Amino acid sequence: MISEWFWERAFAGSPDVLGRSINLNDIPVTVIGVNPTGFTGAASTLPSEAPDVIVPISTPSAQAVAAATKDIPIVFSAVTDPLGANLVRDMHEPGGNVTGISDLSPVTTHLHLIEAITPGARTIGVLFNPLESNSHTLVYLMKKTAMGVNMTVVEAPARKPADVAAAAQGLVGKADVIFVPTDNTIVSALDTVVKVGVENGMPVYAGDIDAVKRGAIAAIGVDYYNVGRQAGNVVVRILKGEKPGKIPVTVAEKTNLYVNPTIAAEMGLTIPEDVLSQADEVVK
Q1: Structure pTM?
Q2: How far is CA 201 from CA 149, 175, 187, 229, in A?
Q3: Is the per-residue pLDDT at 5 higher than 70?
């Protein structure tokens, strides 16, 4: 079983994924299904097995486990807003039995990237699902950070994938560029956003590097392999005797820059050489 998050990013939401073979750590496995967003599986029953540490991946899973036990150490991974999710009381001293790694998008770096590729852009249209708490956090941070670099953010909410195309179209004439955050609803309909970008000469940026392969011109995204290693290091500290409530929550250390000069040209842009030279991957 794969998560809806992975399905959207790795397979563009294709129904043909069932029965396909993929490699995990060089081991071939077959995809037999997709777990919907919010699915927590047996998370709430894990404490009954009395593990030494529980490592939930994603906000819903972490919340389910945290609600089920106040005694067993929990090290969450890939949670965007631990405070907003009520998982910890403080990022530096979490307290209780929970700590972990946040995959909060590097908002400031994204704005600098937009400025480097589209220096005349002053208004950023941000598509997001208002029902996703993580997206609210990202939009808030983008608006706050944009003020410091003489930019403004125009919100474009879409509650379901079918609403994304209209929300993107509504940004035409109101925004200079479009930004797609790590929002499952928006990412699932990315193709419709790219279509609006190409037809109207509006560059589409993203908070997820896999989106660049699907038509965004550039993205700076978290390296999730490294996030797993960071979480593993925290688990080791706990197994050696440290209390999770005393271990600070940290943000993903490593990010990657992906750019797509081909789609950028279709949107009327040329990605500067200095940006291309810094890219971890140039999608062609």
Answers
A1: 0.76
A2: 23, 11, 20, 40
A3: no
